[in-house]
Specification:
197 residues, alpha/beta, Spore Coat Polysaccharide Biosynthesis Protein SpsA, Chain A, seven-stranded mixed beta sheet, two-stranded antiparallel ribbon, EC 2.7.7.76, MobA-like_NTP_Trfase, nucleotidyltransferase, magnesium
């Protein structure tokens, strides 16, 4: 698969209940946490870049400046499946042959890993792999979009990823930020992963 044939969608509409505040706008090395993944994705010359956000969220303006089209999710309480449905609907408005789903609270995913997922995509779903389980970012060929539209609740596409091809990501890059403690720990990881000695 070539990048121009892929719609990239960043899911950024979660309620961040465990974090206790606007997680994606939390400071991470002088910039909003939610921008880290967006910068990596924006650097991949895909057929479209979308961000699924809650209406009126401050992070949306940052995504717009990076070239993302904003897709409002007015019902984030129904769970991750709602954002997945909106992602597919956005991709269907393009000529994309595959949909790459990434999460805004995974700050260490790099463009090179995203490009490896795209390059590996043919007829099967391809997921990132941390050595234990398949997870986002993941890429779904168009033939699998009905499976995404059939998801329900907050489990997302976990059952679909169980049978996916796997691309190992660099160590430590697939962590996500759920709590304030995760954010504090991730800043230590940032210096280890992004600034090796």
């Amino acid at each position: 698969m070539q990048a121009k044939d892929v719609a990239i969608v960043l899911l950024a509409a979660g309620n961040a209940r465990r974090f206790g505040s606007d997680k994606l706008m939390a400071d991470f090395e002088g910039a909003p946490l939610g921008l880290r993944a967006a910068h990596a994705l924006a650097s991949v010359a895909a057929g479209g870049h979308f961000a699924v956000c809650q209406p009126d969220t401050p992070i949306a303006a940052h995504y717009k400046r990076l070239g993302f089209d904003i897709v409002d999710n007015p019902n984030p309480g129904i769970g991750l499946s709602g954002s997945l449905h909106l992602a597919v609907e956005a991709a269907m408005r393009t000529s994309a042959q595959a949909l790459l789903i990434a999460l805004a609270d995974m700050p260490f995913v790099g463009a090179a890993h995203v490009e490896a997922l795209i390059a590996a995509c043919t007829d099967n779903v391809v997921a990132s792999f941390d050595g234990h389980q398949p997870m986002p970012p993941a890429i779904f060929p168009r033939s699998h979009w009905p499976d995404l539209l059939a998801t329900a609740g907050d489990a997302g596409a976990r059952h679909i990823l169980a049978d996916a091809e796997k691309i190992a990501a660099p160590a430590g890059t697939l962590c996500d930020i759920d709590t304030a403690d995760d954010l504090a720990a991730s800043k230590v990881s940032f210096h280890r992963i992004d600034r090796p000695q």
